[in-house]
Design brief:
By secondary structure, the chain is α+β, with helices and mostly antiparallel strands. The chain has a single domain, classed as GHMP Kinase, N-terminal domain (Ribosomal Protein S5, domain 2), CATH 3.30.230. 29% of the residues lie in helices and 29% in strands. The strands form two sheets. The protein has a five-stranded mixed sheet. Helix 2 packs parallel to helix 4. The radius of gyration is 18 Å and the shape is globular.
């Protein structure tokens, strides 16, 4: 019997989404992305001179990402504040997911800092953070060849679904969790992780369903950026 989603969504259906840029006026760039109950805020500072100087790259700028879940962002226990192994890992994969679209050659010896804060979490947090960060970088005017759109897919009882929520993430029968990030214009994958055991066919299905889902996220990202520029022109 095929798995039926607890919230009634179709297998390829995303939760309701919202996106907005320019949400932190004091930053060089900023954005908010909400999907379901998960809310990510991304803030960009820079480019600015990198210190200490031995970390500088004379040929191009350096991207640094910092991911953090606020203490009471989750529906369960309080999140312990400060860096931990999980936040460091997600900070690293966020950086790697974003780097393929950035042209940092114009910023030798400089750093661009991206701070991602999760205000509220209901699964898919790293993907929401990446999506918000891409918009924030564009809002900051950093040269980019594309945006990055990310979505967390899953395999539950042999059924591939897009945009898993917390109830699905905690499914008693077990779930294959597959965070994915795409460069929408050419469909290139900039992030693919897997937690669990799934078949090769299910992985291919997840990539395909994730790619189609990312196209919907991409349209929302573009809309949020366009609205920001229209506000600036008025």
């Amino acid at each position: 019997m095929a798995y039926k989603r607890l919230d009634g969504r179709k297998n390829d259906e995303l939760r309701p989404m919202e996106a907005k840029t320019g949400v932190v006026p004091s930053a060089d760039g900023s954005a908010m992305f909400k999907i379901g109950k998960t809310i990510a805020i991304a803030v960009v500072h820079g480019p600015r001179e990198l210190h200490p100087k031995f970390l500088q790259n004379p040929e191009k700028g350096v991207l640094r990402c910092n991911y953090n879940m606020m203490a009471f962002s989750g529906s369960g226990d309080r999140v312990r504040p400060g860096p931990n192994r999980r936040s460091k890992e997600i900070s690293y994969v966020t950086e790697k997911a974003l780097l393929p679209v950035l042209d940092l050659s114009k910023y030798p010896n400089a750093v661009i800092d991206v701070y991602v804060e999760l205000l509220q979490t209901d699964a898919g947090t790293r993907c929401a953070g990446i999506t918000a960060a891409a918009m924030a970088l564009a809002d900051a005017g950093i040269p980019m060849k594309d945006l990055v759109s990310a979505v967390a897919c899953g395999v539950i009882d042999g059924t591939v679904v897009a945009d898993v929520d917390k109830a699905e993430e905690d499914y008693e029968g077990g779930m294959g969790d597959i965070p994915l990030a795409f460069l929408p214009r050419n469909g290139e994958v900039s992030l693919l992780q897997l937690d669990g055991v799934i078949t090769k066919d299910d992985l291919n299905k997840a990539i395909e369903i994730g790619r189609k889902a990312s196209e919907k996220i991409y349209e929302l990202q573009k809309k949020a950026l366009k609205e920001r520029f229209e506000r600036e022109e008025k």
